[in-house]
Amino acid sequence: MPSSQPSRRPVGLAPERVSGNVLNIGEVLTELTGDFPQISASKIRFLEEKGLITPQRTRAGYRKYTPVDVERLRFVLALQRDQYLPLKVIKDYLDAIDRGERPENLPGGVTLGPRMVSDQLARELGSHARRLTRETLAAEAGARPELIRDLMSFGLIAEVEGRFDEHALKVTRACVQLESHGIEPRHLRPFRAAADRELGLVERVVAPVASRRDVASKARAAETAREISELCLNLHSALVQGQIARMEN
User: Fold this and answer.
1) Which of these ranges, 105-109, 127-131, 230-234, 243-247, has the smallest mean pLDDT?
2) Do the beta carbons of residue 71 and residue 118 sit within 8 Å?
3) Cβ within 8 Å of residue 84, ≥6 positions away
């Protein structure tokens, strides 16, 4: 009797698995190493353990990966690296796609269309890994040079080898809008201190796992850190919104 549950299928493709042109895990590593130098067999097996990929198995139990599996891995790894999304968020999105649903955009506006277009997807994800000069940061955030200088002075953004990352851009954009309400960088120093305290809390929680040398443990530590950070942000937002709601009473 056929199962009523929808079958898992690769993102954006028909339910049938590709029978030819399969790769072993070593060949998958070769495909991905150029874009993800830290990728390892342990990391790929960890993602399988978390249900983000389901490779074929030979009768002897060896994993076999299709080109679609490789693209799915590339998608997951890019979202982790460039948008710092928890694996649960990525998995929920992919599971919805696998069920034939059309979920809302992921954070950052990245979506998967009815069919995965590798080049287009790579362009979308790659744009989040840019490194910005001070001039480009100011232009894209609409910030005055003096604001950039003050944000650096108060430790809200920092240069790494003369460049700023996407997080610095997000911080600067937020501070530009706060400035329109009369809130200056000097008023925002408590946010930097609070972020550092939160990071310290997260590091203490994940330290037992992060101290292990194997890649899978480090991946679990990073994933746990992201989940805790998201929960802290939710808590902070709920506390602030609760106080604001009382202002209306």
Assistant:
1) 127-131
2) yes
3) 226
Give the C-alpha separation, 73 to 36, whole Å.
11
The CA distance from 53 to 94, in Å, is 10
pLDDT digits (tens, 9 = 90+) for 208-234: 988 887 767 777 788 788 888 888 988
pLDDT (tens digit per residue) in 7-45:
333 333 333 333 457 899 999 999 999 888 889 888 999
φ and ψ of 63, to 5 deg: -75, 140
| Tokens found for residue 220 | 């679990």
Please report the DSSP string for the chain in residue order. ---SSPPP--TTS-SSPP-SS-B-HHHHHHHHHTT-TT--HHHHHHHHHTTS---EE-TT--EEB-HHHHHHHHHHHHHHHHH---HHHHHHHHHHHHTT--PPPPTTS----SS--HHHHHHHHHGGG--B-HHHHHHHHT--HHHHHHHHHTTSS--BTTBB-HHHHHHHHHHHHHHTTT--GGGGHHHHHHHHHHHHHHHHHHHHHHTS-SHHHHHHHHHHHHHHHHHHHHHHHHHHHHHHHHHT-
DSSP 64-98: EB-HHHHHHHHHHHHHHHHH---HHHHHHHHHHHH
- Pull the structure tokens for residue 39: 């990728």
Confirm whether pTM is higher than 0.70. Answer: no
159 neighbors 134 (Cβ within 8 angstroms)? yes
